[in-house]
C-alpha cells in the first residue's frame, strides 16, 4: 500500500465516522435495554465500546494526533479483562440456574 | 505515586501469602500494608508532582482523598475476621483485590488525563465485580455481581463515548487543555459535539456515584453483595468517585458556557437524588437495604458540594466534599461493621434482627447509634459538620432553595436512622437467636471504638480537618 493509513481513513468524511459510531453505539444501548439474555447484553456492551474505538481512531487520524489511537489500545486491553470477569460471572450463574436469562434473577426487589 | 506503587507491589505480595496453608497471617499482613501505605501517602503532602507525562498529578487534593480511601479500607478490614475463622479458601485473593481496587481509587483521585480516569475506574470496578460475586453459591450474590457488572460496563461505555466526543471536539485528553479548548473554541461547528460529550460523561459519572435517576442498580447490588464488600463499595468507591467528579468539573469544564449546561443538570440530579434516596429508605424493612438507599441519599448531599462549585480544588466546595466523604465513610464503615457482625451471628439483616442488642452487646449498640446519628447529621458527630460545610458552601453560592430542601430531606432521614436505634434499645429479644450475645473479638471491639471515637472527634473538633485543602 503506498498510502499511509491515516490518509486512507481520511478518504471518508469525518461526519460519516461520527454518524456510523453513533449508530453502532445506539444499537448497543438499545440492545442492553431490551435484550434479556445476559450474553447478548454483554455483546451489546462490547458493541458500544467498539463504537468508541471507531470514533477515537477516526478523530485521531483526522487530527494527526496519536493520543486517540493509544487510548484505543487501552480500551481493547481493559475490555478483554472485563470479558474475562464478565464471562466468569455468567458461567457462575449458569451453574446455579442452568440459564442466563436476566429475568430469572429477581431475588432482589426494587 | 509511592502509594500506588506500594499498593500494587504489596497486593501481589499478599497473593503469595495465600500459598501458605494457614489464613492467620493474612489479616494482620493486609492491615500492616495499609498502615504503611497511609504513612507513605502523607510524605507527598504539600508537594505537587506529576507522573507519566502529566497523566497523574499528586497534590494535596489527591493525598487527602487517598488518605480517606486507605483509612476506610484499614478500619474495615477487622470485620473480615469471620472469613479467617471460617478458613475461607480465597481470602488472600479477596484482600489483594481490595488492595488493587484501592490503586484504582487513587488513580481516579489523582488523574490529569482522561485515560487515567478510565483506567482507574476500571481497575476499581473490575475488582469490585469479582468481590460482589464472591459468594459463589448464593444466588443473591450472583445476581448482585451480574447486575453490577452489566451496569458498570454499560456505564463505562457511555463515559467512553463522552470522552471520545470531547476528544473529537477539543483534540486532547488532558484536563487543562480541554478547559482551554472549551474557552477558546477553534471550530464553532464542533461545539454541540463537545457538549453532548460532556453530558454523556456527566451521566457516566452519575451512574458511578449512584446519583438519581441513575441509581436504580444501587439497592439491589448493595443488598446482594456480601456485607463486608458492600461497605467497601459504598465508602471507597463513592469517596473516590466524587473526588474524580469534582476534579473533572473543576479542571476540564469550568468555563461559564459549559457551566450553563452542567450546573442546572447537576442541580436537578441533586434534588432528585435527595428525594429518591431518602423516601426510598423510609419504606425498607432490611437494615442493609436501608443503608443502600441511605448511600444514594448521601450521594445527593455530596452533589450539593459539586453544585456549590467554585472553580478550584480548594475552598468551600472541595473542603465540604472532603469533610463529608470522610465523616460519611467512617460512619458507614461502623454501621456496616456492626451489621456484618450481627448478621453473621443471627443470619438476618432486617431491623428486628437488631432487637435487644443493647442488652446483649452494649458496645455494638452504642457504636451503631453513634454511626446512625452521624449519618443523620445530629450535632456532636462528624456527619453534622459534613452537612454544615456542604450546605454553607451552597448557601454562599445562593442555592437557598436547594439547601432548604436538603435540610427537610435530612429530617426525613432521622426517621429511618432512628429505627435501628429503637430496635436495639427499646425492643426486647423476640427469639433465641436475638437473646444471645453476638461474638465480637477484641480486635473488632478496638476497631469499633476507633470508628466511634473518630466520628465524635470530627463532630467536636471539626477545625482539625476543616479547610485543609
Describe the structure.
- The complex is a heterodimer of chains A (110) and B (469).
- With 110 residues, chain A is an all-alpha fold.
- Chain A has helices at residues 5-9, 14-34, 38-63, 67-97.
- With 469 residues, chain B is mainly α.
- Chain B has 20 helices and 2 strands.
- Chain B has a two-stranded antiparallel sheet.
- In chain B, a hairpin with a 4-residue loop joins β1 and β2.
- In chain B, α5 (91-110) runs parallel beside α11 (227-252) and α14 (316-346) packs antiparallel against α17.
- Chain B is globular, with a radius of gyration of 21 Å.
Nutshell version of this structure?
Chain A is mainly alpha-helical and 110 residues long. Chain A contains 4 helices and no strands.
Can you summarize the main beta sheet of chain B?
2 strands, antiparallel
> Percent range for helical residues of chain B?
over 70%
Distance between the termini of chain B: 19 Å
Q: What is the H/E order of chain B?
A: HHEEHHHHHHHHHHHHHHHHHH
Radius of gyration from the alpha-carbon trace of chain B, in angstroms = 21 Å
Helices and strands in order:
The complex is a heterodimer of chains A (110) and B (469).
Chain A: H1 5-9, H2 14-34, H3 38-63, H4 67-97
Helix pairs in contact in A: 2-3, 3-4
Chain B: H1 2-17, H2 26-42, E1 49-51, E2 56-58, H3 60-76, H4 81-85, H5 91-110, H6 114-132, H7 139-170, H8 175-183, H9 191-208, H10 217-224, H11 227-252, H12 256-282, H13 287-307, H14 316-346, H15 357-360, H16 362-376, H17 382-396, H18 400-426, H19 432-435, H20 442-460
Antiparallel strand pairs in B: 1-2
Task: Spell out the key features of this protein.
heterodimer; A: 110 residues; mainly alpha; B: 469 residues; two-stranded antiparallel sheet; 20 helices
Amino acid at each position: 500500500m503506498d498510502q499511509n493509513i491515516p490518509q486512507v481513513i481520511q478518504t471518508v468524511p469525518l461526519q460519516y465516522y461520527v454518524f456510523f459510531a453513533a449508530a453502532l453505539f445506539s444499537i448497543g444501548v438499545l440492545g442492553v435495554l431490551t435484550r434479556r439474555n445476559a450474553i447478548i447484553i454483554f455483546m451489546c456492551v462490547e458493541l458500544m465500546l467498539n463504537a468508541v474505538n471507531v470514533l477515537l481512531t477516526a478523530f485521531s487520524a483526522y487530527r494527526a494526533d496519536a493520543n486517540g489511537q493509544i487510548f484505543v489500545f487501552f480500551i481493547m486491553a481493559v475490555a478483554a479483562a472485563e470479558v474475562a470477569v464478565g464471562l466468569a460471572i455468567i458461567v457462575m450463574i449458569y451453574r446455579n440456574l442452568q440459564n442466563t436469562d436476566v429475568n430469572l434473577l429477581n431475588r432482589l426487589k426494587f | 505515586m509511592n502509594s500506588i506503587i506500594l499498593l500494587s507491589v504489596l497486593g501481589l505480595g499478599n497473593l503469595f501469602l495465600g500459598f501458605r496453608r494457614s489464613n492467620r497471617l493474612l489479616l494482620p499482613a493486609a492491615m500492616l500494608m495499609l498502615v504503611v501505605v497511609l504513612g507513605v501517602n502523607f510524605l507527598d503532602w504539600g508537594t505537587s508532582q506529576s507522573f507519566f507525562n502529566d497523566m497523574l498529578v499528586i497534590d494535596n487534593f489527591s493525598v487527602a482523598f487517598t488518605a480517606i480511601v486507605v483509612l476506610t479500607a484499614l478500619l474495615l478490614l477487622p470485620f473480615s475476621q469471620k472469613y479467617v475463622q471460617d478458613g475461607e479458601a480465597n481470602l488472600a485473593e479477596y484482600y489483594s483485590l481490595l488492595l488493587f481496587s484501592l490503586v484504582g481509587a487513587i488513580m481516579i483521585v489523582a488523574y490529569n488525563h482522561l485515560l487515567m480516569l478510565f483506567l482507574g475506574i476500571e481497575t476499581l470496578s473490575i475488582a469490585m465485580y469479582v468481590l460482589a460475586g464472591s459468594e459463589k453459591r448464593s444466588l443473591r450474590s450472583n445476581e448482585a455481581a451480574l447486575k453490577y457488572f452489566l451496569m458498570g460496563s454499560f456505564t463505562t461505555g457511555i463515559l467512553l463515548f463522552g470522552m471520545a466526543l470531547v476528544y473529537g471536539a477539543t483534540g486532547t485528553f488532558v484536563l487543562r487543555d480541554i478547559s482551554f479548548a472549551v474557552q477558546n473554541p477553534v471550530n464553532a461547528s464542533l461545539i454541540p459535539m463537545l457538549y453532548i460529550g460532556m453530558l454523556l460523561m456527566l451521566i457516566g459519572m452519575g451512574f458511578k456515584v449512584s446519583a438519581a435517576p441513575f441509581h436504580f442498580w444501587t439497592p439491589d447490588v448493595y443488598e446482594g453483595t456480601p456485607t463486608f464488600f458492600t461497605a467497601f463499595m459504598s465508602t471507597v468507591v463513592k469517596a473516590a468517585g466524587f473526588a474524580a467528579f469534582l476534579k473533572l468539573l473543576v479542571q476540564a469544564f469550568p468555563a461559564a458556557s459549559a457551566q450553563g449546561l452542567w450546573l442546572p443538570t447537576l442541580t436537578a440530579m441533586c434534588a432528585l437524588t435527595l428525594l429518591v434516596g431518602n423516601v426510598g429508605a423510609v419504606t425498607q424493612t432490611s437494615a442493609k437495604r436501608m443503608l443502600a438507599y441511605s448511600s444514594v441519599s448521601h450521594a445527593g448531599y455530596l452533589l450539593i458540594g459539586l453544585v456549590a462549585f467554585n472553580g478550584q480544588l480548594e475552598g468551600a466546595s472541595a473542603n465540604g466534599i472532603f469533610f463529608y466523604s470522610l465523616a460519611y465513610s467512617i460512619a458507614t464503615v461502623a454501621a456496616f461493621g456492626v451489621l456484618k457482625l450481627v448478621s453473621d451471628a443471627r443470619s438476618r439483616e432486617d431491623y428486628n434482627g437488631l432487637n435487644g442488642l443493647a442488652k446483649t452487646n452494649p458496645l455494638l449498640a452504642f457504636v451503631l447509634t453513634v454511626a446512625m446519628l452521624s449519618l443523620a447529621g445530629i450535632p456532636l458527630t462528624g456527619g453534622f459538620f459534613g452537612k454544615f460545610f456542604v450546605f454553607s458552601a451552597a448557601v454562599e453560592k445562593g442555592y437557598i432553595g436547594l439547601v432548604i430542601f436538603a435540610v427537610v430531606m435530612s429530617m426525613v432521614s432521622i426517621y429511618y436512622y432512628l429505627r435501628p436505634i429503637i430496635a436495639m434499645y427499646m425492643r426486647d429479644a423476640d427469639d433465641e437467636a436475638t437473646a444471645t450475645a453476638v461474638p465480637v473479638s477484641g480486635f473488632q471491639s478496638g476497631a469499633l471504638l476507633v470508628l466511634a471515637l473518630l466520628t465524635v472527634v470530627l463532630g467536636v473538633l471539626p477545625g482539625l480537618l476543616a479547610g485543609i485543602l
